[in-house]
UniProtKB/TrEMBL annotation:
Species lineage: Bacteria, Pseudomonadati, Pseudomonadota, Alphaproteobacteria, Sphingomonadales
GO molecular function: manganese ion binding; metalloaminopeptidase activity
Gene3D superfamilies, alphabetized: Leucine Aminopeptidase, subunit E, domain 1, Zn peptidases
Superkingdom, natural source: Bacteria
CDD domains on file: Peptidase_M17
Family statement drawn from the similarity comment of this UniProt entry: Belongs to the peptidase M17 family.
Residue ranges constituting the Cytosol aminopeptidase domain according to the UniProt record: 307-314
GO annotation terms (biological process): proteolysis
Pfam family, one: Peptidase_M17_N_1
Protein name: Leucyl aminopeptidase family protein
Entry GO terms, CC: cytoplasm
Keywords: Aminopeptidase, Hydrolase, Manganese, Protease
Length: 461
């Protein structure tokens, strides 16, 4: 995790300077250096290229140099490599404020730290800023991102449905919210698809749904829903060993939803928040739900099971139905839903589907401002016929290989109340290749975009 101590107010305390320089401006910048300093950078092969880090002797002290694309327009990640590579200590930017780079400075120092000794440099790297008002929001966002990482990185045995429930309890306690947990016979009656998907799991991983409420009842209703499949074996339509390897991350949607709820409550957004997290393990046993079964739903529709490995949309269906019953101003759901979205967009861009153009545009614009841009995919009504069933109201999986992400979105759309504003993130929740500030492993995609959009939408005026 990260510590609030990583970002501190600049009150003139001793600190090591960081200079940022672009490759095309390096030659002019280096003219101000001594011959020995230039030689030191040359020995490190520093030329101002992106994410390079240089150490420059300065009498009895030293300063750091970082290569960036444009020192005048920093991104979230411009200081991230420095935060990874520099020794423990206190730093300040020499020629300006860190701005958005406060984020990457913190996330670069994330470590799960639960199962092996931390191999990163010991001690925190602290960054100073004179923009005191930026500190708390930057810390909150970085901690939310690292919460997603921690939950996703934690193995399924330690981040099962009960552990996700504990995360919700901790959130409710911290912000004085109300939490209702439904499981057992009541779950089967009220959320039948959640129960069906999770019933094959061992007792200590029994299915449940968490429903947290917070805020004034007179404020606009905002519903956040997250898919919490602690581990996805595929069910009786069992995955391959390769396909199963990363399935501890299949609760990434729940992690996003819980982290976003924390940002909303911590930011005291004037909304009536409903957080819904259906949590299950899609396991294999004698009582597992089967291909060809027809499931009842909270909404009253019936669903034929074309594939037990399309389970996430089932538990989300019941949760979205419950969210819709509050007649919300907006519903946002997060889910590690389809491999098709990854094939289309790769790991870095979360697929976004939305009923209303203005909501999609607001999310995309917000994402661009904070380096967390989603990419919109369509919800084409022409493909809805692919979800038809001969014996039920709809099937949970279509019989061709086309438009998998959009068809999954269309399935969810059937469970969202008519005319409601709804946005769906099909997010990977995993980074397969490390980048500065973004280690390999669990990752938040779409979280910051959603938070920045919500803050703009509900704080206006």
């Amino acid at each position: 995790m990260t510590s609030p101590e990583l970002i501190q107010p600049d009150r003139g305390q001793d600190a090591i300077s960081i200079h940022l320089v672009a490759k095309d401006g390096f030659e002019d910048w280096s003219k101000s250096l001594s011959a020995g300093q230039r030689s030191a950078l040359a020995a490190q092969k520093f030329d101002g290229s992106g994410y390079q880090v240089g150490i420059v002797p300065d009498g009895d002290n030293w300063f750091a140099v970082g290569g960036v694309a444009n020192p005048e327009e920093l991104s979230s990640w411009c200081l991230a490599k420095l935060a990874e590579a520099l020794p423990a200590g206190t730093y300040r930017r020499a020629d300006g404020e860190p701005g958005p780079a406060l984020h990457g400075w913190q996330t670069a120092q994330y470590s799960l730290g639960l199962y092996k000794k931390d191999e990163k440099p010991t001690g925190p790297r602290i960054l100073l800023t004179k923009d005191v008002k930026a500190i708390d929001p930057a810390i909150a966002e970085a901690q939310a991102v690292c919460q997603v990482r921690r939950m996703v990185d934690t193995p399924a045995e330690d981040m099962g449905p009960a552990a996700m429930e504990a995360e919700c309890h901790a959130l409710a306690k911290k912000y004085d919210a109300k939490l209702k947990v439904t499981k057992g016979d009541t779950l089967e009656q009220r959320y039948p698809m959640v129960h069906a998907v999770g019933r094959a799991a061992a007792r200590h991983h029994a299915p449940r749904i968490m429903h947290l409420t917070w805020g004034k009842e007179s404020d606009p209703v905002l519903a956040i829903v997250g898919k919490g499949v602690a581990f996805d074996s595929g069910g009786l339509d069992v995955k391959s060993a390769v396909g199963m390897k990363l399935m501890k991350k299949d609760m990434g949607g729940a992690a996003h939803a819980i982290a976003l709820a924390g940002l909303i409550m911590g930011g005291d957004l004037p909304v009536r928040l409903h957080l819904l997290v259906p949590a299950v393990e899609n396991a294999i046993s004698g009582n597992a739900f089967r291909p060809g079964d027809v499931l009842k739903t909270r909404k009253g529709l019936t669903v034929e099971i074309g594939n037990t490995d399309a389970e996430g949309r089932l538990i989300l269906g019941d949760a979205l139905t419950r969210a819709s019953e509050e007649d919300p101003d907006l519903i946002i759901d997060f889910a590690t839903l389809t491999g098709a979205a990854r094939v289309a967009l790769g790991p870095d861009y979360p697929a976004l589907m939305a009923r209303r153009d203005e909501t999609a545009e607001a999310l995309i614009a917000a994402g661009k401002t904070c380096d967390d841009e989603p990419w919109r995919l369509p919800l084409p009504s022409a493909y809805a016929e692919w979800l038809k069933s001969d014996i039920a109201d709809l099937n949970n999986a279509h019989g061709n290989a086309y438009a998998g992400a959009s068809v999954a979105g269309l399935f969810l759309d059937r469970f969202v109340g008519e005319e409601l504003d709804w946005a769906h993130f099909d997010t990977f929740a995993w980074r397969p290749f490390a980048k500065p500030g973004r280690p390999k492993g669990g990752e938040a995609y779409g979280l910051r975009a959603a938070w920045h959009m919500l803050r703009e939408r509900f704080s206006a005026g």
